[in-house]
Amino acid sequence: MKIITGLGNPGLEYKGTRHNMGFEVVKALAKENGIKVNKERHFSLIGKGKIAGEDVLLVLPQTYMNLSGRAVGELMGLEPKEKRELIVVCDDINIELGRIRLKPRGSSGGHKGLASIISTLGTDDFARLRVGIATDVHRGDITNYVLSPFHRKEMRNVLHVVTLAKDALTCMLEDGLDKAMAKFNKRKIGTS
Known about the structure:
This protein is an alpha/beta fold. The protein is 35% helix and 24% strand. It has helices spanning 21-32, 68-78, 112-121, 142-146, 155-175, 177-184; strands at 2-6, 39-41, 44-51, 54-61, 86-96, 100-103, 127-134.
């Protein structure tokens, strides 16, 4: 069973912020596949279902971004799973809005949610889908930037990149990580 975990911050004050792109992608994936992500377990909201014929567990940690490892560690510990079954979806300040990057493993790249998960699991050997949020206006303190909502003029790009990320995850489930990386890592919104 694949465990697709979208990172973000719970609560209305964080809804629609750049840091919640992981939540948005997993919610879109759930909606498209008729999966309700509403059971409260392991410090998360979870939902089980099938996508592309594959059993999946969709997870939205409710521990806040910087403590994402607490929820993921609880889930992976109480329901023993191969860490290779884990796919983490998160925002990335170093990738341009409109682009995504799938990777089989790697460092946190400064992302505190990923750092928390790596620290808790004791490994970085899990797939991640990074969703770009960078624009030319994020100079200075990035905390305020990532916790700010998208501007109205950016919303079209946001909707497109959420769809791109959702499609990349579906492709990964259907055809494997390597094919999904080859197909989606070079794409930008509006290209095919």
